[in-house]
Fold these 3 entries.
Entry 1:
Amino acid sequence: MTIADKLIRLRKKSGMTQEELAEKMDVSRQAVSKWESGQTVPDLGKIVQLSELFGVTTDYLLKDGIEDVDAAEEACEKQSIRAITKEEAKAYVALRKRASWQIALATFLCILSPVALILLGVASDEASLGVSETVAGVVGLAALFVFILCAVPIFIACGFHNEPYEFLETNEPFLLEPAAKEWVSEQKKEFHGCYVRWNIIATCLCIASPVPLIVSAFGGNAMLCALMLAVLLLIVGLGVFAFIAVGVRQASLCKLLQEGEFSRRKKAKNALREAVESAYWGLIVIFYLAGSFLSGAWHITWIVFVIGGVLSPLVMYLCDRIGGKKEK
């Protein structure tokens, strides 16, 4: 049996079309067609990718002979590539649908957490309001930590619930059974309109969010500016809520189909990206808290998040470039 015959056999056994295999291998459908017709042979790098994808050895793909076919069948059974049934796919999608609302709510609480601190910080500067700096600091920080303490358990619970499906985040090979693949693809098509619609709404909310603050800045009233800053955070929070609510659901479908950012080739890149992003925003929070405690200017130091947001795309771009160089 030639390598072309083996590729046809493995692809069909996995329930994949030539287009789907081409996407996973990051090549054109014509390239896969030429492999299967025997016109060309995959290079060594692609052979390794194919062996990982189908759960067979590179020897099986490269060597001809009936003996190798029998040995490969035994190897496939021993490796037992994880096959996801329709019921398992449904359970995972339902789990992530619930998690999408929970994660969105927890993130919304985190965004709103500094609102009380900002308002009370400005109020303490207004003698007519009778709010002391001590009261403003204690109550504001207490409110901030209450919001955070409500959000953190939600994040942790979602993480624990997702543990059985962590293999979807890694490069561990898995395949969807044909019935499962058909169901997930149908769900993705049905959800597409909702996903696009809410992304547009969320984007508009985030773009419009600074308008109240900009308008209030012309009035010269510090308390009004603080109120409008709170409104800004509320609008941004609603936008982010929408982004996450639909984004987590869309991601769950793409992970099962191994499409886009969740193809095996891109998962390694994403791991580096997520690590850098977590470290980056962790440093931003540290700078914010350190600067606020040292200066006491809580109503001003929040600007570090704006600066962080502006610089974030540049940091992620550099991360992608570095990751790309390492791959080469």
Entry 2:
Amino acid sequence: MSIHARTCTQAPTCKRLLVSSMALGTLLASSLVVAAEAPITIVINQSPWFPGFQSVVEKYVEETGNEVELDVNPFAGSLEKQRSAVRTEKSPFDVLIMNAGFFVEFYKGGFMQPLTDIDADFGLSPDIYTFDDSPYWDADKNLISSDSGKLYSVPVNPNIPLLHYRKDLYEENDLSLPTTWDELYANAEVLNDPPRRYGISQRGQREAFGVTYDVLPYIWSHGGAIFADQKGGDFTVTINSPETYAGMQTYLKLANDVGHPSTAGQTQTNVIQNMSTGRAAHILAVLSPGLFDDPNKSAVVKQVDYAAPPATADFPSSPPLGHWLAGVPRNIPEAEQKAALAFLSWFQTDEAQIAYAKAGSAPVSRAVLESDMADEENFRWMKAMAAAIPMAKLTFVIPEASQVLAVTELRFNQAISGELELKEALNMAASEIHQLMIDAGY
């Protein structure tokens, strides 16, 4: 097997990894190895879980001899490439790795090929989580539905936030695992020792889908939301409701009292680094366990443990889905569609999902997360992930998600930085989102 990195022709900020396999032994006499499927290209974002996905792709290539090229980009760059690809005569990509915040625009736009239209016998394994039914789309009703919709994608990564906490510090201070935000605050207050260590580090930076994603667990677990009921079709803007306000007050209380002094400037990378360097006692972040247990990258090896995000007395833990889905665009040849489906079929197998976990990424298989692997120290995060996934909810089910996020990313950041008072920021966001939804025809 070989992996070749070369500069992308589409953008200088990405890289291409060509993964191919050459069988030896009895094939040495032949100068050509014929793969069972056409070569495929997968467009994907660079993220903490990408190395695990890359490792699984390499395993697929080794076992099948099929060629896979990975087009790797920053978050926003990957999204723009996908938007452009589905609107061309022929997409340069055979598999789109779509984020939870934006997949609906590809479904609703008619850009994706229903997977059962490629192969009527194809389906999700019963062990694969459906992540709030997001792989299914009813094109006639324009809604997500596992009952009436067709299968449009296969989940490839859970990517939900979990509470990360320093179990060694918990043991030293005789602290109990927090299940509510008040309990988390109390524990963070005990462990807050600035500037050496902060009680919690939170993401507050304005990004494509950054601060909005990280405040949703606070908002939802207080009964708040951006819209009243997206899945039910009620787009009443509730971002300035008392419940949303209460959730943001909890976020700000942690940030201001026991958090990082520059929360508004903290990115996901900063938050993870604060934990890995021992400067944070807690973070709420997507899973990257391989990093924290790697002595070359972490000062807190084997000291970080995991739990579902906290809740309130009135509302349950509500992690937002930032998961990723793999879909096949309509505008590629049939042979490439079938080759893409061959990879997605293999990806769902226990073998692939176990390899994915061993490579340091969270699998999308219930069978693996609830297996005996969860009792091993290296996979201690599995129980928290298995507990959190059933409570996780979709963030957006509208193609206007990026427009809404342009508003929320700015206004939440301004509230966290103190540039705007919280009520003013939420009222401004509500007015702006209401107008853009009216303009979009809602």
Entry 3:
Amino acid sequence: MKVSNFEIESLVKNNIREVVDFPKAGISFKDITPLLLDPAVSQRILTALIEYARPLNLDAIVGIDSRGFLFGPSLARALDLPFVLVRKKGKLPANTIEVEYDLEYGSASLEIHKDAIKVGERVLIHDDLLATGGTAKASAQLVKQLGGEIAAFAFIVDLAFLNGAEQLKTFAPSFSLAIYD
């Protein structure tokens, strides 16, 4: 779902740095770090995420390693909800479950603590950017394995030309503050 607020989309796009040929030739990397340099911009982004998430009747916010940890904890605090980490394999200290997923250049694994989500809990899965949807889909699979329910996905940026939202439709709707067609 595209956000209907032109102001927030313009704010995000005007503060994103595009880095050509990173991490490899032919890629135009959307660097969100400039969004974090201006507290007013960061607050406006957080407010937009809160406005989207508040009516969803959530039990937790799930953030994807590592850039889902930038706004995810603040979003959880603002909604008075727990923040659940989905991390790369080997980064969580207690008992975990794992899912392996394909990348364009190989495969990777994500983990979540076994006790992070209870059966029936409604969660929002958050990350900074939606590209092909593989990482968000793997995160959703972890939530489902624990018996959680995905209410929605929330992203700051959606690279819509990579069709990542299509990968997520079977789980829940997705929301992005800025769309790159």
